[in-house]
Specification:
The chain has 5 helices and no strands.
Length: 105
């Protein structure tokens, strides 16, 4: 009989559990790096968003199919451990979106 922590450790090592966390960390690092190098623009740019913004958006939106796959494939096998991993993934997404929400105001 395996315990909750054993199930959690097994699920946390799945690529579909790790990928969204890595993608959120990359998006946050990209945002922090961009703000460090360029800074916050005073006015909207006339030529639209740059490549860094597009890459950030792809990293954030690209997590959705991976999250759905994880929830369907692995999350249903052990609901408690699956919900814990999904909560960690959602927290990572919220952490990477947080600076944008603060800077947008």
């Amino acid at each position: 009989m395996t315990t909750y922590l054993a199930h959690l450790a097994q699920l946390a090592l799945k690529p579909s559990a790790v990928a969204p966390l890595v993608m959120s960390a990359l998006a946050l690092a990209l945002l922090i790096g961009w703000l460090t190098l360029v800074g916050v623009p005073a006015a909207p740019q006339p030529h639209g968003e740059g490549g860094a913004a597009r890459l950030y958006q792809l990293l954030i939106v690209g997590q959705a199919p991976i999250l759905v796959w994880f929830a369907v494939r692995w999350g249903l096998q052990d609901l408690k451990a699956g919900a814990t991993v999904l909560a960690a993934q959602m927290a990572a997404i919220a952490l990477s979106l947080g600076p944008l929400l603060v800077l947008d105001r």
